[in-house]
Amino acid sequence: MCGIVGYIGSKYAAPVLVNALKKLEYRGYDSAGIAVLEDEDIVVRKVKGALKNLVENITDKVIKTSESMSESECEKREQELIQETSKYVKGTLGIGHTRWATHGEPSNVNAHPHLNEDGTIAIVHNGIVENYAKLKAWLQGEGIVFKSQTDTEVIAHTINFYYEQFGDIFQAVTASLKKLEGSYALGVLCSDYPDRIIAARKESPLIVGLGKGENFIASDVPAVLEYTREVYFLEQKEIAVLYEDHVDLFDEDGNKIIKQPYHVEWDISSAEKNGYEHFMLKEIHEQPKALHDTIHPRLVFDGEKPVDIKFDDLNFDEAFKNAGRIVITACGTSYHASVVAKYAFEKFARIPVVVDTASEFRYRNPILKKDDVFIIITQSGETADTLAALRLAKENGVRVIAITNCVGSTASREADDVIYTWAGPEIAVASTKAYTTQLACLYLLALKCADLRKTISAQEYQHNIQELYSLSDKVSEILEDKTSIQKFVSRNFNKTKIFYIGRNFDSATSLECALKLKEVSYMHSEAFAAGELKHGPIALVDESTIVVAIATQKSLYDKIASNIEEVKSRICTTLVITQKSCNRFKNDEEKVIYDEVVKVPDTEDAFAPILSVIPAQLLAYYCAVHRGMNPDKPRNLAKSVTVE
Ligand code: M6R
């Protein structure tokens, strides 16, 4: 959701900015632009649509010169033209932006950067200026004529207003920030200050990349990884002034502050496709490693055998022992992980669990108690609604545990305890490895909680730990043979709707399976608790429908078999995802009651969600590809939803 970049150094800024913006494409956007200081003037290029449009606009050349050019030839030419942008826009200091429209339609004029009236100050902004209407009225009263419909443009004119008053750009920016309500990550360029970029953040994420003789700003680490692994994560209301050879940091009142840079461990290859056609497919295949990296460090071994779970870096044993409830909030896929967690905590630790989407939680005056254990789940650690839920819990004196994939994210800094999913950067908008590693963390917590509360025997505890540990190999096994899913998709990708049904843990998994499919293939897809079918949804089932039954819960095989027969008799197409040893889905004549089956390795029923979601992720991916969609960049979606 909006990407910001900035560069100051000795290289030409335009190619660096466009390349860095390409690394942020996964966040989702609908227009793009750059502003570069060339001699004494700020040159702005901005266009509606993809970054390739921006490259074509700057170079005045087309990327696809003939219809027969393959995708890789187009990518190669785009790279060449990105390098050529330096011939047309020549400065070594600039800011860039990919915009995801909130106020004002996607258009050339609404694209960032935005300028003050005489074009001497340029800004890029991520976030929402909640009081923009008031500020706009004030500035219009001062005679300012606005060019765009954005909330952002008020920032450029406000900075200009204070610049005219103080004659100092830093003072002008700090004064302007105090006028803004809402959220911002900001990059500011002023032609009177050709030696610096000013950056600031509140709510929306922003990092500073520290290079040698060059420095960067960006919304996320992948944008700068090609150049440096040393970064500052800016905290709430911090301001950075970047020069070629150093960076100064300040608090909101302009007092200088010192902080240690963070060394990013992962390398550039983790943020690239490595031969896979799409990030989504790559990330699906990274799940065995991601699961191992998340689970292994949390286990205590007796020889080769895992026998215990450790959270010794955290301090929540007493909280879990004495907890009255567990409350979990999150959004989207992370919320779906919390629904699985409800089943897991209630099964193993016999503790009531309340789950809620963060967007609902924050506005319904939730009842929170001091003996609640409050968990938020967020891959990015930057989701606005989830952070609001975190802050609400803390205001109510409740201790917060964050499960996140992003070291240095706002959630990781504001929560009392942090459990990392070690999935590595997830670039595809559709979450895959983040989800399964979130489940892994939640299972570890549920088992540990059960052990602390003595709700399972030592034998059961150890057996479950060993089973959890074996899941990464079982996921590898599923990924070794994708043919039945591929064949099923090639026969059925043009059906109009897909319903996922399941019971117990499988009904929780169904939610995530349906979301995955709708996000990337745009097929109409819903999840229903199988027992609810008769209460309405079955009216929708016809020959254009696929019903996928997630059927991994042994004690409920007979129940879900009846549901499969019910929908099958409405002439729809059925796919069953079940455990390897299951042979139950046959009728009295010993004939199978489904059109296709995908079997995942046997496991404890409680852990089946980690395995049964994999075929559904693949199904979503292949449906998207067959239907000609780019699964990495679904329309209208952003990777990191940093505004409400
Ligand atoms: O970064 P978060 O986990 O907080 O993100 C929450 C949702 O926006 C996210 O899971 C979204 O639903 C994904 N696109 C799902 O694939």
UniProtKB/TrEMBL annotation:
Name of protein: Glutamine--fructose-6-phosphate aminotransferase [isomerizing]
Keywords, in A-Z order: Aminotransferase, Cytoplasm, Glutamine amidotransferase, Repeat, Transferase
Gene assigned in the entry: glmS
Physiological role: Catalyzes the first step in hexosamine metabolism, converting fructose-6P into glucosamine-6P using glutamine as a nitrogen source.
Domain of life of the native organism: Bacteria
Enzyme class: transferase
Catalytic residues in the record: C2, K639
Record's signal peptide: none
Localization in the cell: Cytoplasm
CDD domains, A to Z: GFAT (cd00714), SIS_GlmS_GlmD_1 (cd05008), SIS_GlmS_GlmD_2 (cd05009)
